[in-house]
Amino acid sequence: MRKMLLRHIAAGLVAALTVSIGLHAQDFKLGTRTVQVHGFASQGYAYSDENNFLTMDTSRGSPAFTEGALNLSMAVTDKFRFGGQGYSRKIGSLDDFRPSLDWAYGDYKVANWLGFRGGKVKTVMGLYNDTQDMTFLYPWALLPQGVYPVDLRTTYIAHTGGDAYGRVSLKELGKLEYTFYGGQRSYDDRDGTILFIQQLGYKLKTISGHTIGWDVKLHPMKDLTLGTSWANLAQHRLQLTPPTTLQNMDNDPNDIWSGYEDYTRGKLQISSEYRANELMNRVAPTTPGGTVTMSNKSTIEWFAAASYRITSKLQTGYYHSNWQMTVPHTPAIQASAHIHDEVVAARYDIDRFWDVKAEGHFMNGYGDSHQAQGFYVKFNPQGLKPTTNLLMLRATFKF
Amino acid sequence: MKHLRIIVAIAAVALCGSWQAQAGGVKVIANTSVPASTISAGEVKDVFLLDKDSLGGSHVEPVLAKGGPAHEAFLKEYLGKSDGALQAFYRSLVFTGKASMPKTLGTDAEVVAYVAKTKGAVGYVSGDASTPGVKTLDVK
Which of A171, A174, A293, B111 has an alpha carbon within 20 to 30 A of B51's alpha carbon? Predict the structure, then answer.
């Protein structure tokens, strides 16, 4: 336990030291063009009183929450830029510090009202989908997990394909921002999706899926954003139910609709998001004539948050996060159909580069054994308890 | 006498307007390649929040100060954001690949020198800063 703690703290410090050494070399010249370098490193510690959360051994205190990223980007002309970002994390058994390509794309801006991106692009969906790793942007150590689950990050965060985007003035009505996108999704074999498939006893052969969708934001007045998104995230899996049954498993349709807002007035910021995740699960054997089973895995997810900046360095906040299955798998077990999370948080900005956070989560419910949502039976061998109180501490360096 | 009072009043308003254009001790400067001589407060905001990348048909890019009274006055008067909020705004774009972090410099002299040598650069300095080699934009 002590060795693991020291390993994780060391990993976080090495990451921070590495990027801080690079602090004075944030850009360099490539010919006549400037290449910018930016990155972040974050180390967390979590302790819970009951269930283990996010595959970490939180009931005994766990520092297994480390993540970081490094990006390079360059404006080739006034209209064309390209760049890429590498990302790595270890959160419990989710990932194992394996570096991955977070995004890498070329961006051509025809005009303010029209541009195109092609490559691996962060998916714009809701308030925070494309920026969910950058918790240094927010008061929270963990974003509302009902809507932005850490364990399902790779399922939603990016697509390899293209975007069309733009920003249009609506005169007195404000400004409208849009993104249309499409592409293929990638799946990490240590993502929560894969872990819960294994938890159900299946052996995964292949998994694939596309993402198509749009996001529209309206800025009708200063510091107010109103938005809506839609995404289709159909998924196909070929999996083996031991010993011999090979199945096709499709999440189709899988449509996510969301509406959201963000408003800042003085030192107060209020944000909220509501999502309807419509998901039908269809399982069929690969041999003709077998039984097809359909099940409704739809969920309703939402959060409401408020934060207040007490001083230029200190910010506090509260949010309520809600995740609810519309058709619970085990309706007799009330705690299995929902996760309600009341959160109080404090953030202190040491300087422009360092911030530290302390956050309390008071959770009721643990989700469904047929859905990945933070609580896994494999990591809770004593059985899942109906409530979880969790303390989350986090330090982040960014440049 | 009545006409004198009117003249004095008009002069006072003009002086106040001029002071406002200096925005509480801040002036907006640009590289001489930028064709515009006047700029609206809304355009200043759009340039520095990356909503607008051209003035008068010419490409522009913002240049920031790292801190100090001019920086704080500029943020308050034109952007309505704290330094932390501005950094968060730029970082949300940088870490998704949508934009570069604007050049950030430590002193008025460094800002002036960079704006003077960089085509399309638009920055801000103290109202009383020496600004050789750049043009001061009149903010309406």
Answer: B111
